Amino acid sequence: MKVKEITSILEEIAPLQYAEDFDNVGLLVGKNDAEVTGVLVTLDTLEVTIDEAIEKNCNLIISFHPIIFSGLKKLNGSNYVEQVVIKAIENKIAIYAIHTALDNSIEGVSAKMCEVLGLKNTKILIPKKSILKKLTTYVPIKSADDVRNALFLAGAGNIGNYDACSFSISGEGTFRGNENSNPTLGEKGILQTEKEIQLSVIFELKNQAQIMTALRENHPYEEIAYEIISVENSYQNVGLGMIGELSSAQDEKEFLAFLKKTMKTDCIKHSALLNKKIKKVAVLGGSGSFAIETAKKAGADAFISADFKYHDFFKAENSILLADIGHYESEQFTKNLIVDFLTKKISNFAIILSEKRTNPIYYL
Asked: Which of 70, 140, 218, 288 has the fewest CB atoms within 10 Å, i.e. is most exposed?
């Protein structure tokens, strides 16, 4: 298989369009059309990761965190980022990063945390905006059903738990073709009035290319009138963090002990205990202090994330238990998620879980 064939499968669960604007995702090092000998999945890409890939004959590394985050102005090995990139290039190893594209996936990082913790009735904590678009086009009445159904098959018209969603308005369209035209209806040079349907559908940004192909292939007109606009609606199936419920309520100390054991962490920093039961739990892998207020408004009894600063703990305001379990610890099961997904999709190909520890933080 080629690099692009494997990464396109991974993008089924985490389309790159889901990534945050500040992020750097996709193929960072290497060529899309390179033949793959094996895939190594890791949380971070360090020199020891490159060495492991060489040892295990893997020339594609799928890394959760991007080794190149901001722009490189030189490449002379003066820091660990440049050293990793140089070593990867010298050994013809491709590096693909997925990061916030998987963070925002409903089957991604936070979903895996929920699975490990046994949370039920889960949903996205912060639905993502600017992920939806609306297509409006104008179709002669007799062709409206064919065009509508083709757009549905291409992925348009999905809203939450519903599909085949559209809106239509009847009206009249006018057009006149010039001498170079080849009109489907009417004759060139003569003004044509046609009864048409104004058809509107919502779609995810990741499906735009295939939806436009479906429109062009199924619309009868030589020149298709259409417009695409971005909508600010939040999309409940894409976004950061998740919230769910424990199978049974736990005392705070019992919950923290369960959390420490289950998430395999040596240290939990937490806010003041409130002498209340923990039932509804919000989670967000990685740095999640920005979601504290959202977790409180969602009615969470506890919020599990990482990288809380001193003043972040004051935001608990005696209404929620905040638990910082560590950045690495909150994301540690992500590589298992990626390996499991790819193994199911490509059962006859070597998908290897990295055995190297990449957590830069140690506890005494």
From this structure: 70
10 Å CB burial of residue 38 (0-12, 13-18, 19+) is: middle
**Mean pLDDT confidence for 348-362:** 92
Half-sphere exposure of 354 (CA within 13 A, CB side): 31
Sequence-ordered list of residues with C-beta below 8 angstroms from that of 322, at least 6 positions apart, any chain: 270, 271, 292, 302, 303, 308, 312, 313, 315, 316
In which residue are the tokens 């889901």 written?
A: 18
CA distance 107 to 206: 16
Q: What is the spatial distance between Cα 111 and Cα 241, in angstroms, rounded to a whole number? A: 8
The β-bridge relationship of strands 302-306 and 60-63 is: unpaired
- Cβ neighbours of residue 8 closer than 8 Å, sequence gap 6 or more: none
Residue 11 to residue 344: CA distance in whole angstroms:
14
Give me the pLDDT at residue 348, please: 85
Structure token pair of residue 291: 């979601």
Closest CA to 351 of 18, 53, 46: 53
Max Cα–Cα distance, the chain, nearest Å: 84
Q: What is the pLDDT of residues 177-208, one digit of tens each?
A: 999 999 989 899 999 999 999 999 999 999 99
Interval 12-42: pLDDT, tens: 999 999 999 999 999 999 999 999 999 999 9
Sole residue written with tokens 């205990």 = 273
Average pLDDT for 251-269: 96
pLDDT of 144 above 90: yes
DSSP letter at 310 equals G
- Average pLDDT on 224-240 reads 92
> Environment class of residue 140 by beta-carbon count within 10 Å: exposed (0-12), middle (13-18) or buried (19+)?
middle
